[in-house]
Specification:
homodimer, about 650 residues, mainly alpha, Transcription Regulator spoIIAA, six-stranded mixed sheet, about 5% strand, Sulfate transporter 3.4 (chains A, B), transmembrane helix (chains A, B), S04_transporter_CS (chains A, B), transport (chains A, B)
């Protein structure tokens, strides 16, 4: 056992030569029957070094500045410019053929963005023109700051819906239009500030807490609510609830039967069917993506012509009416920084900000991975945030990258963000010259466009997969779905995030423990229930704890381990096997330990000692080893209490037993 | 490779014979160069079976009913009686020698419990007699229901303090004594209901979330506040704040200098010094525990005699005054179930309930582990809860097992809960006959007793150990200390619990990843930074992820793994080494995976494939394997993407490369 005398070793001095491997020592003394390796401590670090390492892992996991290393000052300046303004990165290599692709895709998404912009503004209870403004300035800002090549920027349904709901609960656009507009711009401003600071402070991981399961449920719930709300436009109802829960919306639709207009219903349902069919075609044959991309604008034109032609007969149909010509007016004077509704504006800003950020970043990541280029999520957040801050000063409301339009952009062959510039140019032309054409566009077509857009958000296949693979994920999904449907958007989201976090805590509070056995003729020890070929090692109980040992589970683990031992002893006694003599805890999956955990291990050792059982730890990872060492618990374990692997522990302890029977 | 064709295998039918071990197959065909084992799925279970297993792990980890298995009906009845009333367990074997020990220890704790009971009631702003009532009924109830042999039941400082603070913020005892009493009894009732239901629903793990670090800080903060509040008694101040924050208490003490009474100060400081010295003696020499145990009662007697003898000269000293003789009056008619303060009573009940439960269970566990007997935490919670519910109907306020008195009980040689019965008997005698003796007991002695008791709660050594071992634990400790001191008890606790939970989430959000190397001449692969002797395997990058892969970390892990690969490739290129060809993910410590994690693995595989790198998983644990299988991701990995150990993966892949150069 002379080999073990220095088994815990520190590499405090990085300059010192590495210690001779254990193998050499054995060859000098005499080959012992069992080769035993030392469990090492990780290199010693000061608290400041540890803190620095930890912070860099938390805030800079992707090491965004690695390109700047070992570069001259000039190169660093160029790289810095390219870092902050990606346009400098791609503009020098921009070619005519790239431009041709971008023009085609830009025009395609413009034909989608114009009707959707008008519709989504209605969804946020804002005047339709705000939707067009929001499709003009933000794409231009993004094209300078953004690094995604396929993101199509503009208003999106979820953020519009949430902003509309949250503001309308307190202020009605019909009663106080100026205050409502002020609040909308202020919420947009705070959304931008929140997004930019998340990115700037590199706290982007906050949006990861909206798990996919939560989002699937949330989006489906929002889509159902939004679609039902469109009954207002499709049925031609004038007095409709501004609430967003399922019950008031449905009762509002069916209590106002006298306001239903049959002309609106016939025309609305017709166009809705048309749009849904084009959507189906594009899903079935992805090459025909332009069918669904062109359909909204075509429907708008067609329905406007219909209304103009049959003006006298279709008097029941409500139209958009007069839209002001001209570019975005400045709105920085409308930002609202003190007054009774400031808290509402900030809250709305943060919630729409986080939702639009989630959508935008998901789009960016999806297309980056499809085309295999790298994007920095935190930098994108800054870009989206600055774009919203600029938008709030130029009569725009919250914008982000839209999933549906970005997919069209990608399919139409977009190569760079220039497609956004082309789209903005098309919107510019519309704003300057084509506004009067929308005078007779019926509201019902906007409702049909919204429904067609949000139907895609109901992803029942993803929900089914959640059910198949992970029941607790499915529960989170259901919670956010029903929460949004019956309570409210912020509460539904909060409940779903709560369920997701609870799932993590539950995993930590009640971790899995397993009894291991040896796979014959190997040094591999595996779970006995998972591997039938694994066999128990007589006199040993080998246990694996599959979680960090924390205050939240230390009591549980102690009870559970004692129960395993009790059950093992009962089984051995009833089968007339040899007594249990040693318990090995495989610590490979114990990725962290805190002070409560250390106390538990130490107490467990004492309890087992009283029952003349030996407790041995196998393969503690670096950080756990460090804490065990710092708490001086290793001294009580002695030299023979710590092994590098289960195999070595068993070999060494068995040989020690044999030599002293 | 014929061996691998069925590497993923299901043991769906528990009756089927186990599959032939891999070894046999090889001996029949032909010994291949590398022996490769299959990664198995755990036995297939239905959703209901999984749910049942999961629920039994959550609620019955200690399998409390295992004694009932395979017993006759009569035995089950006896065991059931013993289970619910532990008195049936020990009473049949009770002997005279046990009784002698219990009488000695019972009398000892009574001498401590009587002065402490009166003092703690003052701390809760209740009449002193309530403290004596609370030392009579609850110990009797506990002696029937409880299974700890050393718990000394009665009022405790922390719960008294918290109840006093929370109730006094809304209702003043001096202005509305009956309402205050009603609220105190009602809060006690709800504390009991909450405690009993936690135990009954087997949700005892809720108290584990008050980690040791949180409690160390909280207790120290509470002790500081309580001690400063006793300046009222020690200085003889009449008009004192009822607030509990540091600033108002200190300013109240030093703004009422004209109310200070020198006689009170001299006598108070003298007795405080005496009590602190006896405390020190008992700490230095544990055998002299009776010195500090007897000191409070001795001081009470001595100070009362002093006041009686020098009545004329000591008129500045306030005394307890008249206490009613007689047993606990019933108080069930004083419970308050509707009215404006019900919410306050419930909130106070829950917070004092959880705090007193935490103390009581910690005491139970400490002494059970010292004397090596088993206690069921959840059953103890039911006992403490029922005792408080009964207490609330007999003029008692919140009680639990006191740490200091239980330690004295243990040191005085208590053998069973009979010592509680003896103590209750002593209190009974006091209540019936000795109450007039307390008429001249000065209030200052109560203040001195409280300070001496709470000084022990300041555990600076534990705080120093937290700082040494775990900086985040220390932060939680500081948060609860300063939160209690400057904000309020519930908020301080909430902040500390938040920090503790944040620590868990941070560990999951930013898990450790490590690059592994082979320890020469073994099949062990270990962290390269921890083990200097470990060497890289050419053409392979072996990585270990030390956390479950969840929505909260899947993006981070993807970025971090890609960065490891990029850094490895840069290093290889700059050192003219052979190219990277294969990335092995050691999944041993990946104890769980959710749908986002599965997507990440699948996306990572696709991304690496585009860069012609092979991704291989080694040793996924049972639950992860199950999810990978259910999500059909294994099919995309193919037969060669999954190995039982890193060693087998390297051996098999290398030999495949050699055979097809």
């Amino acid at each position: 056992m002379g080999l073990n005398s220095n088994r815990v070793e520190n590499f405090s001095d990085p300059e010192a030569p590495p210690p001779p491997p254990a193998i050499e020592a054995t060859s000098v003394i005499q080959m012992p029957p069992v080769e035993v390796h030392r469990v090492c401590l990780p290199p010693l670090k000061t608290t400041a070094q540890k803190l620095r390492h930890r912070l860099s892992e938390i805030f800079f996991p992707d090491d965004p500045l690695h390109k700047f290393k070992d570069q001259s000052w000039l190169q660093k300046l160029v790289l810095g410019l390219q870092f902050f303004f990606p346009i400098f990165h791609w503009a020098p290599n921009y070619t005519l053929s790239l431009f041709k692709s971008d023009v085609v895709s830009g025009v395609t998404i413009a034909s989608l963005a114009i009707p959707q912009g008008i519709s989504y503004a209605k969804l946020a209870n804002l005047p339709p023109i705000i939707g067009l403004y929001s499709s003009f300035v933000p794409p231009l800002i993004y094209s300078v700051l953004g690094s995604s090549r396929h993101l199509a920027v503009g208003p999106v349904s979820i953020a519009s819906l949430v902003m509309g709901t949250m503001l309308s609960e307190t202020v009605s656009y019909n009663d106080e239009p100026v205050l409502y507009l002020k609040l909308a711009f202020t919420a947009t401003f705070f959304a931008g500030v929140f997004q930019a600071s998340l990115g700037f402070l590199r706290l982007g991981f906050v949006i990861d807490f909206l798990s996919k399961a939560t989002l699937v449920g949330f989006m489906a719930g929002a889509a159902v609510i939004v679609s039902l709300q469109q009954l207002k436009g499709l049925l031609g109802i004038v007095h409709f609830t501004t609430k967003m829960q399922l019950v008031p919306v449905l009762s509002s639709a069916f209590h106002q039967v006298d306001e239903w207009s049959w002309q609106t219903i016939v025309m609305g349902v017709g166009f809705l069917a048309l749009l849904l069919i084009t959507r189906l075609i594009s899903i079935r044959k992805p090459k025909l993506f332009w069918v669904s991309a062109a359909a909204p604008l075509a429907s708008v034109i067609l329905s406007t012509i219909l209304v103009v032609c049959f003006k006298s007969k279709l008097h029941g149909i409500k139209t958009i009416g007069n839209l002001p010509k001209g570019l975005n007016p400045p709105s920085s004077n409308m930002l609202y920084f003190d007054g009774p509704h400031l808290a509402l504006a900030i809250k709305t800003g943060i919630i729409t900000g986080i939702l639009s950020l989630t959508e935008g970043i998901a789009v960016v990541r999806t297309f980056a991975s499809l085309k295999n280029y790298q994007v920095d999520g935190n930098k994108e957040m800054v870009a989206i945030g600055l774009m919203n801050m600029a938008g709030s000063c130029s009569s725009c409301y919250v914008t982000t990258g839209s999933f549906s339009r970005s997919a069209v952009n990608y399919n139409a062959g977009a190569k760079t963000v220039v497609s956004n510039i082309v789209m903005a140019a098309a919107v510019l032309v519309t704003l300057l010259f084509l506004m009067p054409l929308f005078y007779y566009t019926p509201n019902l077509i906007l409702a049909a466009i919204i429904i067609t857009a949000v139907v895609g958000l109901i992803d029942y296949q993803a929900a089914y997969k959640l059910w198949k693979v992970d029941k607790l994920d499915f529960l989170a999904c259901l919670c956010s779905f029903f929460g949004v449907l019956f309570i409210s958007v912020p509460l539904g989201l909060a409940i779903a995030v709560g369920v997701s976090v609870f799932k993590i805590l539950l995993h930590v509070t009640r971790p899995n423990t397993a009894v291991l056995g040896n796979i014959p003729r190997t040094q591999i020890y595996q779970n006995l229930t998972q591997y039938r070929e694994a066999v128990r090692v007589p006199s040993f109980l080998i246990m694996a704890v599959e979680a960090p040992i924390y205050f939240a589970n230390s009591t549980y683990l102690q009870e559970r381990i004692l129960r395993w031992i009790r059950e093992e002893e009962e089984w051995l006694a009833s089968n007339n096997r040899s007594n249990l003599k040693c318990v090995i805890l495989d610590m490979t999956a114990v990725t962290a330990i805190d002070t409560s955990g250390i106390d538990t291990i130490s107490e467990l050792r004492k309890m087992l000692e009283k029952r003349s059982l030996k407790l041995v730890l196998a393969n503690p990872v670096g950080s756990v080893m460090e804490k065990l060492h710092e708490s001086h618990i290793l001294e009580s374990f002695g030299l023979e209490g710590l092994y590098l692997s289960v195999g070595e522990a068993i070999a060494d302890i068995s040989s020690a037993w044999k030599s002293q029977p």
